[in-house]
User: Fold this.
Amino acid sequence: MNPKHLANSILFTVIIMFSTTALAEEHLIAQNSKSFQLSGSKVEAITIKVGDTIRFKNEDPFFHNIFSLSDLKTFDLGSFPKGQSKTVVFDKAGTAEVECAIHPEMFMEIIVQ
Amino acid sequence: MKYIFSPQHWRRGVWIGLAFILMTGASTAAELNTYLRPGAIPQPSNNLMTPNRVKLGKMLFFDPRLSGSNWISCATCHNPAMGWSDGLPTAIGHGQKILGRSTPTILNSAYQPLFMWDGHARSLEKQALGPIENEGEMAQSIDNDNGKLISLLAELKALKGYRDAFEVAYPGEGITKKTIAKALSSFERSIVSSDAPFDLWIKGEKQTMSNAALRGFTLFEGKASCVKCHSGFNFTDNGFHNIGLEDATDAGRYAIRKVKILIGAFKTPTLRDVALTAPYMHNGAYSTLAEVVEHYNLGGHATENLSPNIKKLNLTATEKTDLVEFMKSLTGEITPVTYPVLPAE
Ligand SMILES: [Cu+2]
Assistant:
């Protein structure tokens, strides 16, 4: 391979990698007072971009168990205590319904665009 | 030093100190507020409670003609003389059949979002017709005459007393599955707990709770951490947990939601009037509150898929009786329930 082409393709790959990581965002969804919260207030839905990450963080003094059985994304984060968090990457467009298995009143939608 | 101890700064210090004392006092009061009765009985906008609806629902609730045998009413199992339950480990239904789960109280069901031990019914209205048609419970067809059995709709429509009662409760809506479910639900919503010694204590009547019950309350919120699940006015998080009972046959909430933590998980029951509703648990495993406390003290029996909120507690003998005393303080004075007069024609 022509060294110039090689250099170009490496540069290209680096730019693409850099730009996708720069575009993908992380959103913090807290579990607080038995509800899903975004920046301190209750959320029922959040709109994010394909490739974004949601970080679910438990702020209650008891366990939660976040899961989704929706077509878009199926996951079960298991139960984790106050202060700990787990992440989910949403890599396709669509809507995922997210619930807490222990407290079914905790319910929200993740709209991936 | 001279600066700090000047009278003016001394006074400010006192004010700050006072404000601090007030703030900490207010925060404990705010925490007690979580146990206060919500303002009004929650009710759906398409079935608001009216005296006529509650009255009709009460007739239906106590009427054994709602069963296939004309012998079992809702009140046979949800008996007001026994805390709206039946005193049995698990219920006995149609044809003396012993059922798989215990009869929960219907007390404060207005405050619950999901019904049944596994939470499969999403409203009282959706739950109400279930037991009537269930072969094990009341075994009564509601709208299908089956060739031999007379349907419930036909039975009720034949009685002028019911035709009139439905008409005043739900004008123009007739006697249908929907109006039967709505009336039963309205009656159930009217069954709310009265003020127990604990409620009077929160409101400031300090002598209503014994010292043992007060120590039990501290344990309930602290060392024994019962409040992680039995929280708020109704002493439930409306959640589902596997608390380590030995029951190999019942998957509980897992049948409704296939998430691992829900294997053997059941709905947290209210602790209101709990002194009246023995035996306890979905399978009637324990016959006294002392046995229940011992269960939690050991951190449960079966450890498979146990809730991470259940741990060995290492309670002393006094602490165990204190917890029982606290639970007894959640039982209010019971107003006797009168039987309705059922239409004979
Ligand atoms: Cu939860």
In short: The pocket of copper (II) ion is lined by residues A 64, 100, 102-103, 106 (CB under 6 Å). The mean pLDDT of chain A is 88.
